[in-house]
Design brief:
Layout (H helix, E strand, L loop, with lengths): L1 H18 L1 H19 L4 E5 L2 H14 L11 E3 L4 H11 L6 H7 L5 E5 L6 H12 L3 E7 L11 E5 L4 H24 L2
Parallel strand pairs: 1-2, 1-3, 3-4, 4-5
Length: about 190
Amino acid sequence: MFIKEYIQECIHLNERLLAGENILLTVEAIANVIIQAYSDNKKLLIAGNGGSAADAQHIAAEFVAKFKKERDALCAIALTVNTSVLTAISNDHGFETVFSRQIKAFGQKGDIFLAISTSGNSENIILALKEAKERGLITVGMTGENECKMDGLCDYLIKVPSQDTPHIQEIHIMLGHIICAITEKKLFEI
């Protein structure tokens, strides 16, 4: 049955994550760097394309609104939500600069840029990572297991051990939730 097979694939991927100590340590390190950034009054900028754009918005919402408990808002901006900005940049400068241009506008040294790309090769994400590094932002990435352009551009990189886009995206949002939970717990002692 297809449904059971799909769920079994998800279980298998989660088991691979649990067995991969490096991924777990990287997730914890990312949460800690975000906690430090928020303690220093910095912000989190997040971007992705397609389903990863939706993940960027979802993760930003968890930081700004709340994850588990009522608490102060945390500054997280999804660079995927302002249609006027997105279309103006795409029209005037090219779609490949849609996120890097926003990093120029909003990014400051010590902020964090979270880049989400299942392939790790999206040109607009790569240019945004390069711009973020130039401006002194901490670069964090989430991608799949394949070798990709993001590999050398992220201070912290989570490579989900899969080549299947839907499964990679499912893990990205789960890890985003875990990072939110750790951040919320440590910053607000929940």
